[in-house]
Amino acid sequence: MIGKPLPLRDLGFQSTLELVADMPEVVRVCPYEKGTFILKAIADETTKAIAKLVARQKRSAKARKSAAAKADAASPSKNPQSFPRRSRAPVLPATVKAELQDLLS
């Protein structure tokens, strides 16, 4: 949104996927078909009504395949569990977490 890359290394992460995997209250990494995955935003109090509406929508098979293809093309690795776990997770600043949650909502 601001035209600048995320400062992943400054925050202690090697990739965007590693960053989102460390924020389970904001985004969920869901396995999909053929080793791909989907990122799902976690609804909070302000977005629960929208999340319910979206959940009721029926997506066509074509839309699901298109989303998986885009996720596959944008991802350097298809397996989020392949990232090594650190013994001590970095502390993500509250402002960064809030901005990411706002972007995902």
UniProtKB/TrEMBL annotation:
Domain HTH OST-type: 1-43
GO biological process, one term: cell differentiation
Domain of life: Eukaryota
Keyword terms: Differentiation
Amino acid composition bias (Low complexity), ranges on this chain: 68-78
Keyword Ion transport: no
Spans annotated as Disordered: 61-92
This protein's name: Tudor domain-containing protein 5
Source species of the chain: Fulmarus glacialis (Northern fulmar)
